[in-house]
From TrEMBL:
<dbReference type="GO" id="GO:0005509">
    <property type="term" value="F:calcium ion binding"/>
</dbReference>
<dbReference type="GO" id="GO:0007156">
    <property type="term" value="P:homophilic cell adhesion via plasma membrane adhesion molecules"/>
</dbReference>
<dbReference type="GO" id="GO:0045296">
    <property type="term" value="F:cadherin binding"/>
</dbReference>
<keyword id="KW-0677">Repeat</keyword>
<dbReference type="InterPro" id="IPR015919">
    <property type="entry name" value="Cadherin-like_sf"/>
</dbReference>
<dbReference type="InterPro" id="IPR039808">
    <property type="entry name" value="Cadherin"/>
</dbReference>
<keyword id="KW-0106">Calcium</keyword>
<dbReference type="GO" id="GO:0016342">
    <property type="term" value="C:catenin complex"/>
</dbReference>
<keyword id="KW-0472">Membrane</keyword>
<feature type="domain" description="Cadherin">
    <location>
        <begin position="108"/>
        <end position="215"/>
    </location>
</feature>
<dbReference type="InterPro" id="IPR020894">
    <property type="entry name" value="Cadherin_CS"/>
</dbReference>
<dbReference type="InterPro" id="IPR002126">
    <property type="entry name" value="Cadherin-like_dom"/>
</dbReference>
<dbReference type="GO" id="GO:0008013">
    <property type="term" value="F:beta-catenin binding"/>
</dbReference>
<dbReference type="GO" id="GO:0016477">
    <property type="term" value="P:cell migration"/>
</dbReference>
<protein>
    <recommendedName>
        <fullName>Cadherin domain-containing protein</fullName>
    </recommendedName>
</protein>
<dbReference type="Pfam" id="PF00028">
    <property type="entry name" value="Cadherin"/>
</dbReference>
<feature type="domain" description="Cadherin">
    <location>
        <begin position="8"/>
        <end position="107"/>
    </location>
</feature>
Length: 286
């Protein structure tokens, strides 16, 4: 045959026998003396071992990884030492690596934190979204498909979509009654046997975002002046803003310039503005 396909599990150990070879040349003398080589010889996890002039073995020399390389195309070339010219033949070897469930679903962080506003009115019996859980599994097919669950959901305060990882609150939360919830969550793949990992989400219940940020600007207008030869970094003025919400992040503020009306800014006029806003404290802006 001119070609051969071999399927290998990615877990085969180093030095595993992949293929036994026997090459026959019906001539005699140098006409039957055969030399063979494997192309490509480098950067592949296999090696060709010559046992006799006419027999050899193909073995693994490194571990295989489906997620790194899933297929190898090798060419075995054999030529005799005949005179006045040699004859040669080729065997194309296609090695297909089969995926195994060797990667565990993992969260970006095992200990996650999030905040939930209290007194959010329920508009649906399905509750409202508060968190999106996500785990990575580098396997393919069912081995890489992840389902999610909550381990300690005795009070049925939360519900998780097993396919998407979206967590919803099913009740109107009250900070005075319960200001913290700790959920144990699990990510499990669909491989056989399946692999899983666990994580923790700490939810802190905070007050509603009741107040908008306010800055010390009269009638929404503020005027400053600066000399035209001022050095870079010169402070033109100070702006103080505050937010009367007590809980983080509702009480945190950030200040951003809007130099042009919405939709009017482009790459050209963006860089015509020789000023920048710098936050120096949580409520002081230069």
């Amino acid at each position: 045959m001119n070609s051969l396909t071999i399927c290998l599990n990615e877990s085969v150990p180093i030095n595993s026998l992949i293929l036994s070879l026997s090459i026959i040349d019906r001539d005699s003398g140098d006409n039957a003396r055969v030399t063979w080589k494997l192309d490509p010889l480098s950067l592949i996890p296999f090696e060709l071992i010559r046992l006799t002039e006419s027999t050899g073995e193909l073995r693994t020399k490194n571990l295989l990884d489906y997620e790194h390389v899933s297929q190898y195309n090798l060419t075995l070339e054999a030529h005799d030492h005949g005179r006045p010219f040699s004859r040669s033949t080729h065997l194309n070897i296609y090695i297909i690596i089969l995926d195994e469930n060797d990667n565990i679903p993992t969260f970006k962080e095992n200990n996650m934190t999030a905040t939930i506003n209290e007194h959010v009115k329920l508009t649906s019996q399905n509750g409202y979204e508060i968190f999106h859980l996500h785990a990575l599994d580098y396997d393919h097919g069912l081995n890489g498909e992840v389902v999610y669950s909550i381990i300690n959901n005795e009070n049925n305060v939360f519900r998780i979509d097993s396919n998407t990882g979206i967590i919803r609150a099913l009740i109107e939360l009250d900070k005075k009654q319960h200001d913290k919830y700790i959920l144990q969550v699990k990510a499990q793949d669909k491989g056989q046997p399946s692999l899983s990992s666990q994580g923790t989400i700490t939810f802190t219940v905070i007050s509603q975002n009741e107040y908008p940020p306010e800055c010390d600007i009269n009638n929404n207008n503020l005027s400053w002046s600066i000399l035209e030869n001022s050095e870079y970094g010169t402070i033109i003025g100070m702006l103080s803003c505050r937010d009367d919400d007590k809980d983080l992040p509702n009480g945190e503020i950030s200040v951003h310039p809007q130099w042009f009306p919405e939709g009017k800014i482009d790459a050209q006029n963006k860089y015509m503005i020789p000023f920048e806003i710098m936050i120096t404290k949580s409520n002081i802006t230069e």
